[in-house]
Amino acid sequence: MAEQVNKDSSSSKKSNEGNPDSGELASNILNQLDIAAFCWTDQGFFNSIGTPPDWFIELYQKKTRAIKPEYHEFYLGVSFPFIENFLFDAEQIWAEHANKNLRSGLWTETVNDFSELYLEAVAMNANKVPILLLMNETTNFEIRHKVFQNARNLALKNEQLENSIQQHQRELQKQLEKIYNPSSSSNELSSELEEETTAIMICKQDGDVELYNKALIDIYSLSAKEELKRQSLLDQWIKEAEKQYPEIHRVIKSGNQWEGEFETVDVNTEKKWVRLMIAPLVNEDNQIARYICIANDISSIKLSVSEIEKLTQIDPTTHLPNRQSFWKKLAEEIDNCRQSGESLALMYLDLDHFKQVNDDLGPKQADFLLNTVATRLKRCLKKCDYVAHLGGDEFAVVICNFSDQQALANIAQRIKDNLYRDVSFSDFTLNVSASIGIAVYPQHGIKPRLLVKSADYAMYHAKEMGRNQFQFSSPYSKRRIKQKLYIEQGLKSALANNEFKLLYQPQISVGKSTEHRIEALIRWMHPTQGLVTPADFISIAEESGIIIDIGKWVLKSACEQISILRNAGIYTKISINVSPKQFKYSDLTEDVRSTLQEFKIDPSQLEIEVTESIFVEEMDDVIKQLEALRALGVSISLDDFGTGYSSLSYLKRLPLNILKIDRSFISELPNNKHSQTIVESIIRMAHQLSIQVIAEGVENQAQLDYLKKLDCDFVQGYLFSIPLETRELFTLYQSLSVQ
Amino acid sequence: MISKKICMVGAFAVGKTSLVRQFVESIFDEKYHTTIGVKIDKRQVSVKDKMVQLMLWDIEGVDVFTEFKPSYLRGASGVIIVADSTRPKTIEVAKQIKHEVELTLSNAQFLLLINKSDLAAKWQPTENDLIHLDIDSNNIFNTSAKTGSNVEKAFRRIAELVLDTQVNG
To answer: Cβ separation of A317 and B75 shorter than 8 Å?
Structure first.
């Protein structure tokens, strides 16, 4: 076939004498274009069309070590491995006789130590003749290379910049945490931090700015520092970030650190991208006192090259799709479902106690943990399911194909089981668990943001229910969480507004003791919701740390009451409930000592009431504190005995005076045999250990008679008295003295 | 002499070209010079008393501008996947490439080189990475094209692997 081409070329030369030779002309054009053109022969070699350009001859000689190549016949496959590889695909094109061409892509050939050729092969058919063109792209290469080099340099710098910004913000936050003193009125940024190119702002919970540096002024193009003082950025940031991160409010309110990237506007309404970190700053009582906000203007990274942005769809820690990608995917899937009428499920996962892991082990190990979680998540889901890492310890799963709610429950259970395994680090193992919230489109939200919010509430509900579990979105979970946030918010001002009060319930001696005792019980008179019971706010107060302040108020109020009663000639002991947090995070012994001193109270008139939950952790430390309290002269009682971690072995180690049998056993007396056995055993055992016993929840005569028979020391319950206001307490004691 | 095609693949700027240059010419250049397309180099190594010529296909790194071209892999006996110890993203690209290579080649031998070991590492292969890559730990090397650390060892290892495949096959 190639021969035919040459023959045609030669005959054409003869018949066109006097006219430009078309073969020569073609050869000249190809040479000028730096193209070596060949016809493929089925004998395995190529016939050149015209005389090949010099660069090709030189290269071919070098490759084949031929002094001078044979006329027109070139064994390209043997000499050039790249072409040999290309020929597999080229032959298909030639065999099809199709009017299309195939390009090989660029490759480099070294001519000598000082020069390289950049070539590209093209396979095509011309009048059904198989043609191979070798195009010398060396001249154009430099421009192409420059474009690619610049783009990749930029991409590389952006990648490094993003990593270093993230790292730098975390380091700054640690530094600020160490140096900033929330209780001091004269904090100042060092000149180094003042001149930081990263923006720093420390503000109160209401957004009132306390400290900031110059970079913050620069990002927001503020004309004078005064402007910032008047207008807090915290609210603006939360509103702006909320479009992408609907849970930001909850994360911040619940005292967790938040990091993310979002679009913001400066005072000139110019749009910018910032990477922001908001970290709570806690005071000595472990309550949120301030927020540390650290921001970088990352507009240049975000806007530099639109293609490079595609790379930012992946989270660098877990290599899962990131938050941006998640929103896009969720919107697409909801759109699809809207058209097809199908459902989709969103699972929102939050690792349990991740903050502690991060604090204790450091960011590297925490990243390792996140990575392992990501792997496990992917492995327990189908390929068509979508998993994203939303940042921090939050993950999302989008599931499109499921039959019903039970199928979703099965998937959630599978995730839970797969995650709930040990993670091995170099020298220790750690157990990981997650709380999962599930929301279904369209039942729980027809728009992405609503669906995410529903799943987030459900996840929060799962945390509420004890963690390591899943919950479906429900009106109850939404109401419950909203209520919780409402209560949490209200608790912050309740103390200042004097909304708490103590009621007093007498504990009546049914044995030999003549001691007068009462238990102080806290109540919260909410300004709009009325009476809020401890069951509705104590756990929230414990979680948020406000319980420590509440505990101090209870101690003070009870001691004041003892003093008032004593001045009225009534000598009674008051027991107060103390939270495990008070043992862990405050100097309880010192608080008790100073309060007793303040009100000049006989320590034997005060009793500290604890529950078994204080012994779950650091029992030795708790015992030391209890012993110190006993040494002051106050007595100790153990509440709700029998319901928690009741263990006879620890009972004898504790410096207890009183043991209170839980009302659940008393309510079933005297008929329930099991309750009889338990109550009888507790009283006998307590007496053997010289501990007195109080039965709680005594409501009828039969219960009282039975307890008397068992030599119970004290009883408490509605049979004698409901919890009383101070005024009613006086009336009761006055009536007793008359009797 | 036995000739074996080995493909160097990975994200852009991980040091594929530098590794080949270090192995073939014992040269290292600090400046990043991006590869466009393919460059083929060769070097002979002696493995188990046999001379093997490694045909090293240095293939342009994958990024948003350049798709991975499976056709370049045709006939390869070994694939060296390169990642950068200072850039966590590059292991993700390595995983994607491994997946694509497996769709094209059924019997190739794999090596993972975590390059730039002369710099402070910013990541380590996780459980997830190792599961996805499914590469024996004997075939993972921390290399430095700059200092030459483990470079010779790694290329010799791929030579052994591809030779073993031929013997066993």
So the answer is: no
